[in-house]
C-alpha cells in the first residue's frame, strides 16, 4: 500500500509499504479518505521532541472507509461495511482499527466523506458546553469546529454571537445560524460590542475554538459572572497564562472540552452519524479542500495558512 511518511520538518514522502494485518479484535479498513487536523501542525513544524521519519501513515486520525479484513473474534463490523473509525495512521491507503472503535455508516451517507473523529469531537464539545435554549453564546473562531458548534447551538435555541478573523468565516457563521457576527480585530472593540449586544451582561457560555493566547484572553472577558468558558481550541504550542483575577472575580466555570477516552470519542461519532443521517447537520459544505495523498504537504500548509475560503482539508484515495 501507499503511505505518507514525514521525513523532516515540512517534508513528506509517499512510500510503498506492506499492508497491516488485523490482530484479534481489529479490523482493516481500505480507506476512502482522512481529514487533516490542526493538531498535525506542531509535528509538521518539527519541534525538538518530534522524531523523524514517522511511521507510515502516522498522524492521520480522521479516517473513514470500507472494512476489507477482520481479525479473530470480530463479528461486527463485517467485511464490506462502510465505517467511520478512530484510527491513528490514516495517511495511508489502509489502516487498522479496534472493532469497538468503528461506527457503521448508513446507506443514506454512501458517497459522502465522513471524517468521524472531528465530527464526533464537535458533538462531544457541544455536550460538555451545556448550551441550552435561551442562552447567549459567543463562539470565538469560526473554522470547521466553530461552524458546527454555531449550528448545534442555534438549533438548541441559543443566540450565537460569532467572533472570527476572516470575512469568509463571518459569512459562514451567519449561514450556520449566528444571530450576530463580530470581526476579530481589536480586543477592546470586541468586548465593547459584545457588552452592547448583551445589555452589559456578557455571555452565558463562551466557546474558545482557536487555540491561541489572545482568543483565550478574550474568552474570559466575554463570559458573564457565573458563566461557562469552554476551551475547545487545541493549545499545544506552548504554555498559556490566564487572567485568574477576572476568572475568580466573576466565578467563571472553565471546561476543558478535550477528550482522551476512546469510548467518549465513539459516543460523539455515533451522535454525529445520527445527526447527519437525520439531516440535522450537513458538514459537506465545510469540506472545502481535497488533496491526493501525494499532496499531503500542501494540505498541511493550507491548514496552517488558511487561505481565503479554507475550512477543512481532506486527503482522498481513489
From TrEMBL:
Residues 145-243 form the Alcohol dehydrogenase-like C-terminal domain. Its cofactor is Zn(2+). Residues 23-95 form the Alcohol dehydrogenase-like N-terminal domain. Signal peptide: none annotated. One of its GO terms (molecular function) is oxidoreductase activity. Keywords: Metal-binding, Oxidoreductase, Zinc. The keyword Kinase does not apply. Transmembrane segments: none annotated. PANTHER family: D-GULOSIDE 3-DEHYDROGENASE, NAD-DEPENDENT ALCOHOL DEHYDROGENASE. Belongs to the zinc-containing alcohol dehydrogenase family. This is L-iditol 2-dehydrogenase. It comes from Muricoccus nepalensis.
Amino acid at each position: 500500500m501507499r503511505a505518507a511518511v514525514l521525513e523532516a520538518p515540512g517534508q513528506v514522502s509517499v512510500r510503498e509499504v506492506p499492508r497491516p494485518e488485523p490482530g484479534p479484535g481489529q479490523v482493516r479498513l481500505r480507506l476512502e479518505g482522512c481529514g487533516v487536523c490542526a493538531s498535525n501542525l506542531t509535528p509538521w513544524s518539527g519541534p525538538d521532541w518530534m522524531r523523524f521519519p514517522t511511521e507510515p501513515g502516522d498522524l492521520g486520525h480522521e479516517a473513514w472507509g470500507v472494512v476489507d479484513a477482520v481479525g479473530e473474534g470480530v463479528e461486527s463490523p463485517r467485511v464490506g461495511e462502510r465505517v467511520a473509525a478512530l484510527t491513528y495512521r490514516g495517511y495511508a491507503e489502509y489502516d487498522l482499527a479496534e472493532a469497538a472503535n468503528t461506527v457503521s455508516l448508513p446507506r443514506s451517507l454512501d458517497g459522502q466523506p465522513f471524517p468521524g473523529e472531528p465530527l464526533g469531537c464537535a458533538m462531544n464539545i457541544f455536550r460538555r458546553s451545556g448550551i441550552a435554549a435561551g442562552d447567549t453564546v459567543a463562539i470565538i473562531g469560526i473554522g470547521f469546529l466553530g461552524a458546527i458548534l454555531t449550528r448545534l447551538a442555534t438549533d438548541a435555541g441559543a443566540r450565537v454571537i460569532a467572533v472570527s478573523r476572516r470575512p469568509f468565516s463571518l459569512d459562514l457563521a451567519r449561514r450556520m445560524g449566528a444571530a450576530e457576527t463580530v470581526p476579530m480585530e481589536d480586543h477592546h472593540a470586541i468586548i465593547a460590542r459584545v457588552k452592547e449586544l448583551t445589555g452589559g451582561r456578557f455571555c452565558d457560555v463562551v466557546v474558545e475554538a482557536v487555540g491561541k493566547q489572545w482568543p483565550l484572553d478574550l474568552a474570559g472577558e466575554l463570559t458573564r459572572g457565573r458563566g461557562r468558558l469552554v476551551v475547545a481550541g487545541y493549545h499545544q504550542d506552548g504554555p498559556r497564562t490566564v487572567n485568574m483575577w477576572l476568572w475568580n472575580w466573576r466565578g467563571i466555570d472553565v471546561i476543558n472540552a478535550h477528550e482522551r477516552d476512546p469510548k467518549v470519542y465513539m459516543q460523539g461519532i455515533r451522535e454525529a452519524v445520527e445527526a447527519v443521517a437525520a439531516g440535522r447537520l450537513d458538514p459537506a459544505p465545510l469540506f472545502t479542500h481535497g488533496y491526493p495523498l501525494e499532496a499531503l504537504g500542501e494540505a498541511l500548509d493550507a491548514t496552517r495558512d488558511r487561505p481565503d475560503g479554507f475550512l477543512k482539508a481532506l486527503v482522498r484515495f481513489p
